[in-house]
Amino acid sequence: MALHDNTPLKDVLTAQRRAFDAAPNPDYATRKANLQKLEKAIFESEQAFKDAISDDFGHRSQVESTLAEMIVIKAGIKHQIKHLKKWMRVRKAPTALTYKPSHNRIVPQPLGVIGIISPWNYPLQLAVMPLVGALGAGNRAMIKPSEFTPRLSELLKTVLASVFTDDEVYVATGGVEVAQEFSSLPFDHLVFTGSTKVGTIVAQAAAKNLVPCTLELGGKSPTIIDDSADMKLTTQRILNGKALNAGQTCVAPDYVLMPKSKIEDFADNFIKRAEEFYPTFAGNPDYTSIVADSHYSRLQDLLEDAENKGARIRVAGTDDKQQLAKERRVPVTVVTDTTPDMKIMQEEIFGPLLPIVASETLDDSLDYVQNHDRPLALYWFGNDKVKQDKVLHQSISGGVTINDCAWHVIQEDIPFGGVGPSGMGAYHGEAGFKSFSHFKGVFFQSRFSSGHMLYPPYTDKTKKLLNMIRKIA
Ligand code: NAD
């Protein structure tokens, strides 16, 4: 079914729900076909997607787009198709002795229409991965991609419309007004990926219709470097996590906690290694630009504020400042002598700036983490298993990578999501199937049920029976 371009979003939702009601439980073959159709359409336009993202950013490294958009989507669809049949199975559930020979089952069923609001930083992957989960669980979906990546959003709309009807998958492009209208719709589930600030607004809009939400939010993800860490490996792995997409990654290592005596060496080596990764920042095809002027100025402001408050700033490379500004490129930068009143220590950085906080012991670092919002990710570098266990058990974060950054996010076999202000719920792999399905409990009554013995009128016999049931219940 094709709708007019100016169809109100509420009517698109009605059309999707009607179509869902007419076929509310697509079988495995249909779901698999939908996923294969999605994969084919996306990969046939791979280069166009990469170009659109790059044009939206000013420049986005092609390798980063291949790695963090295309390969993630490919792996997600493959995993979904491989496991879907098993996830869709009706589950046997135990039945208490009192109710036998009747029996219980759990029947997974699609929820209906899933709303997806996605951000600009990995604009294809973060729109498509929730869609993979939604389609795998047998739903229809409406997507509102970010207004910061308009070319990508338009292309996504065209590509998805070439393989899905509007009552299967619909992309709503536009600005914040469209996003507000979108988040006020009575979806069966809403997935929002974006900032904690907007997530709070979206959750309130969804609550008006009692729409359950998966909130994939952001925050400051700490990195703790232990004395036992291999510093060469640690330096390059944190650098890679920070410089990917020029730091515009929700799980980028936001700041480092380490003993004061090691900070100077680490900071110098970090910059040296950054200059090896990127001999220049301006004009370098491997290095990504900052998405918009507003974000570029925000990062400059964070640095200026830190410097004014006494921080030392080390900038990698010797690129011409005007050229960098023209290309909206921010070189990898290390900020030392930080204090809590600096803005860079208060808000999510979302850029290639790495502040370092002096922290002498693991307890100091864990205290620091506990005294701040629960982060989306936490990284620990070291080789002391006792301390590693302590970190895992005493810190709360959405996820953890030990001795590297961000790799836990792309593991389809473990859930990914935030906790507290960094989010709620998860949608990767089986977690997505669970989020986008209703698990319906069904009790199958037996012909030989003794339930009739509890019918009124209640007599002494009924009371005796109740006493007996009380003993075995
Ligand atoms: P954002 O919150 O500004 O915008 C995200 C989406 O929300 C966009 O599609 C936008 O149109 C929409 N939106 C904006 N205002 C709205 C409103 N009032 N009502 C409803 N919707 C509205 O986020 P962003 O700048 O696009 O992305 C960066 C943020 O996303 C960072 O905080 C980052 O950490 C986070 N993020 C989280 C994950 C994750 O998986 N947890 C992944 C990527 C990014």
Could you name the key traits of this structure?
single chain, 473 residues, alpha/beta, Aldehyde Dehydrogenase, Chain A, domain 1, Aldehyde Dehydrogenase, Chain A, domain 2, 2 domains, seven-stranded mixed sheet, six-stranded mixed sheet, 16 helices, 16% strand, globular, binds nicotinamide-adenine-dinucleotide
Blueprint (SSEs and pairs):
Blueprint: H1 9-22, H2 28-44, H3 46-57, H4 62-88, E1 91-93, E2 103-110, E3 113-117, H5 125-136, E4 140-144, H6 150-163, E5 169-171, H7 176-183, E6 189-193, H8 196-207, E7 213-216, E8 222-225, H9 231-243, E9 255-258, H10 260-277, H11 293-308, E10 312-315, H12 321-326, E11 333-336, E12 353-358, H13 362-370, E13 377-381, H14 385-394, E14 399-402, E15 423-424, H15 429-435, E16 437-444, H16 460-472
Parallel strand pairs: 3-4, 3-6, 4-5, 6-7, 8-9, 8-13, 9-12, 11-12, 13-14
Antiparallel strand pairs: 1-2, 2-16, 7-15, 10-11
This protein binds nicotinamide-adenine-dinucleotide (NAD).
**Portion in helices:** 40-55%
Count of DSSP strands: 16
Top-tier CATH class of the largest domain: Alpha Beta
What overall form do the CA principal axes indicate? globular
Count of DSSP helices?
A: 16
Task: Give a concise summary.
This protein is α/β, with parallel strands linked by helices and 473 residues long. The chain has helices at residues 9-22, 28-44, 46-57, 62-88, 125-136, 150-163, 176-183, 196-207, 231-243, 260-277, 293-308, 321-326, 362-370, 385-394, 429-435, 460-472; strands at 91-93, 103-110, 113-117, 140-144, 169-171, 189-193, 213-216, 222-225, 255-258, 312-315, 333-336, 353-358, 377-381, 399-402, 423-424, 437-444.
